[in-house]
Amino acid sequence: MPSPTPAAGRRGSTALAWFVALLALAAGGWFAWHGWQARSQRALEIEAQTTQRLGALEQRIDALRQDQRAQAQRLQQASSTNRVLRDELLGIGQRAALLEDSISALADPDRNGAQALRLDELELVLGLAQQRLRLAGDLDGARRGYALATSLLDGIHDPAWLGLRQALVQERSALEALGDDPRAIAAGRLQAFAASLPALPITTAARDDVTLPWWRRAFARIIDVRHADAAVAIEPGDRAAGLAALQLELTLAQAAVERRDRAGYRDALARAEGWTTRLWPDSPQLRERRARLRALRGLSLAIELPTLGTTLEQLRSMRAGTR
User: Which residue stretches, if any, does this entry annotate as coiled coil (predicted)?
Assistant: First the structure.
């Protein structure tokens, strides 16, 4: 056989080299892929461990929060318990003080049935006088009640009631200084105003103006010329209806005075003032009546006595302290 040539040997060596290179490349790719898979698996395991740790940490945080809330509730309950105990101790102390005061009052030789009965009567009279003034507005009845209370208190010679006697004198002086009842003053002035209305002139006096024509000056006292849209009621029927409405408003004002309803009283007088301008023409007398109406609207109907009831309150507090 003929021996192989050098070119064929070289081609065989090159193919072998390429085959070895391909094997090495495949082995390197396989090792690289295997390493990547290992790293990916490791990363997933680390991520899973991290997630587990975070979950465990959140559970611990939730447990700590629950413990904290439980501790806060326990502290609140303890605070409430301490407050209740403190209130009970204070109540026990107050009851002990009341027992001591009761024993001292029972042992007081000056405490007798006659004085207690007189104080009860004094408290009743002061209460009746105060309610008589506050509810019924009876100023004279309240003054008589305070005078009776003064005579009752004068029969008690215990120096411990000297402050109460001074308070009663001050309140009675303030009651005497009020003067007349504002309701009576308003009712009287309103009645006088109603009685003065018929004296108002129904027509204005004729004017002797030398600048007017002679025929107008000659017939001025015979013929009265008025505009058709005049505000003053001239017809008998209109005047009768207007006078009835005015009398109704004045009656409503009187009723509001009796109730001490200042808002209703002012509204009724405002409507009455409107009817005066509808029933009588402008004149000095009408302006004077309207000024009186405005003055009547400014009157106060309530009895203002800031010291009302101070003696009764002091008497009750003193009696509560001596019991």
Answer: 47-74
